[in-house]
Structures are given as structure tokens and as C-alpha cells.
Model the fold of this input.
Amino acid sequence: MFNPQKFIEESIEEIKKQIGNRKAIIALSGGVDSSVAAVLTHKAIGDNLTAVFVDTGLMRKGEREEVKKTFRDKLGLNLIVVDAKDRFLNALKGVKDPEEKRKIIGKLFIEVFEEIAEQIKAEVLVQGTIAPDWIETKGNIKSHHNVALPHGMVLEVVEPLRELYKDEVRLLAKELGLPDSIVYRQPFPGPGLAVRVLGEVTEEKLEICREANAIVEEEIKKAKLDKDLWQYFAVVLDCKATGVKGDVREYNWIVALRIVKSLDAMTAHVPELPFDLLKRISKRITSEIPNVARVVFDITDKPPATIEFE
Done:
């Protein structure tokens, strides 16, 4: 039986031993994994940890403000917020291939992160890696290893959650006193909304995706289903369809809904949902977001599909 309190006590001591008096850095997304890793490390080494939130312009609605409020204002972490929206969107112009998008975002994120690491003279990189992260990628790297950043900076990697699964990390988050908005926060892909905007990433499609996601989250929470579901979000497809608003025909974007249940993300299934809920989400998206012509619902389990579209 997993004992959160015991794990926290042992983990704090282990982190102290691993890092000592060195400066450490962590990329904080606001997701439960990086949040728990950051809070544990902060408890172990205090202000020797710098948490970095990189605003790529590919984040969910209100994410930057929520991270600042929770981690800087409430929890007292040493937090740096980097506004890198223009850098990311410029680098993604004209790019449609999902793997190319992922590579561009990953490379640029590391470059931005390295700039901060050099500024604070960090020697250690803390990561919120959990078991499915390395199992799915067939990773076989030990907890204590080094990573070389693009310009030659070498950081020792510490992964305090490496052997845990998401349900265990959520138990830790509750034990650490994190708010429910973090404890039950949905997993969010590293490339952000870039992989929920199919095809080329544009300001228009990102705004549609942000607003549609906010509507989905609001309605799922109103229906009190948020704690039963693994993920629920909207995707902007790379195609348009004909619709009618008022007496006017229009040709505009299609939004797909993705709602799944899972225990550990290794597999996932689409649950039966109240049809009136789906209709309400669809009506709100098409009426509140001007450039959406229709909404479709993805009913494919994992496997054969992945949870994310790209």
C-alpha cells in the first residue's frame, strides 16, 4: 500500500542528499507531476531551487496567471516566468508535420531553459518524470544521470517521482496541501496546444482551441465528472466545414472533443457520457466562438488511438 506521508519524508531526505548545497532548476508547467516534484524539492533545498514557467503561447486559458498565483504567491517558490510566445510562434510558422512541431518546440524550450539555468548557475535539473513517461518510451536511464544542454551546459538530473504512477502522484499532491486545481489537473502535452491544433499553428486556431478547451472544462466540472475522467479537451482540426449561423452560410473550423477515462495513461477508453452534456458543449462552442462551424466527438479508445491527436 502506497504511503504518501512516508514517501514525502523519505523523498525530501533523498533530495537533500542528491542536491546538497547546489542550485537546482525545474521546468514548472502547472501539471501535477512537475508541481509535486517542485514542492518536494523546495521543501528539501528551499530557495536553492528555481522553478521556471515558460509561456510558449501554447498554453491553456489563464494558465500563466494560475501558476504565478499558486506557486509564487501561495507556496512561496522561487519562480521565474519567461514570456517566449513570439519566439515559439515564429519558429512554428508554416510547419504542419506533428513530429517537426514537437522537435521545434522541444529544442526551443531547452534553449530558453538553458538561458535561465546559466543565469542562476544551476548544477542540477529536477524533473517530474513518472513511470509511464519512461516505460512508454522504453527508457532505461537511471535516476542519477547527466543531461547536456544545447550549448554544452551539463546538469545532473534528479527525478523524485520516477517510480510512481499518476494516481500516486495525486495522493502526494493532496498530502502536500496543493489545491484541487493542481491535484486533479489533467495531463497536458509538453508541446502544449500545438498538438491540439492540427496542421499549422496559427493565432486564430490557438485562440479557438483555448476557448473551446475552457468551455469543455467548465461543463465537465459543472456535471461533476472531472474527478472521474482522465482527460477532457478540445482539438481544432486542420479542415473546415460548412455551417449556418443565423441566415448566413459559413465555411469554418471543426472542433473535435476528446474525453477519456484511464488509470495510468497506458490504455484509455471513451466512457458513455450524458448526451445532453455533449450537446450543451457543442452548442456553447459553436455559439460563443465565432470561427467554429461544427463540433464532432471522438469515440476511439487507446489503443488503437493515442489520447492526444498528434
Notes: The longest strand covers residues 231-245. The first helix runs from residue 4 to 19.
